[in-house]
């Protein structure tokens, strides 16, 4: 079992920044990759970013956030971060952290790749 706890969401004006954190606990020694997804009202959950725990920390981003968001990790603290800059109103959503323990399966941008999910944190960007 792995427990994920997100924090750092809030209300920010367009052009501002937020930093989300996701602290993992439990069987974290088996973490292969961590991902961030988001879900806006009336829309499906969509991929935002992912980072591989090993292999030098390879990262993946959705096209909509490339150049604005940065995913990083602190393996010693079992924590993953999502630095979000130049936020836009369309970034408004509930952001979820996810953990992949299998290390195989669908590509990283598929929600079904991940085994555990956090409760989510709300990010609201005002125009």
What's the total count of β strands?
A: 11
What is the overall pLDDT average?
93
Portion of residues in beta strands equals: over 45%
> What is the N-to-C succession of helices and strands?
EEEEEEEEEEE
Query: What's the Cα radius of gyration?
Result: 14 Å
Strand and helix map with partners:
Blueprint: E1 2-7, E2 10-13, E3 18-26, E4 33-39, E5 46-52, E6 59-61, E7 69-74, E8 79-84, E9 93-100, E10 116-117, E11 121-126
Parallel strand pairs: 2-11
Antiparallel strand pairs: 1-3, 3-8, 4-5, 4-9, 5-6, 7-8, 9-10, 9-11
Structure description:
- With 127 residues, this protein is mainly beta.
- It is built from no helices and eleven strands.
- The strands form two sheets. Strands 2, 4, 5, 6, 9, 10 and 11 form a seven-stranded mixed beta sheet that branches. A four-stranded antiparallel beta sheet has the order 1-3-8-7, with no helix packed on it.
- The chain has strands at 2-7, 10-13, 18-26, 33-39, 46-52, 59-61, 69-74, 79-84, 93-100, 116-117, 121-126.
- Strand 7 (69-74) and strand 8 form a beta hairpin.
- Helix content is 0%, strand content 50%.
- It starts with a strand and ends with a strand.
- The mean pLDDT is 93.
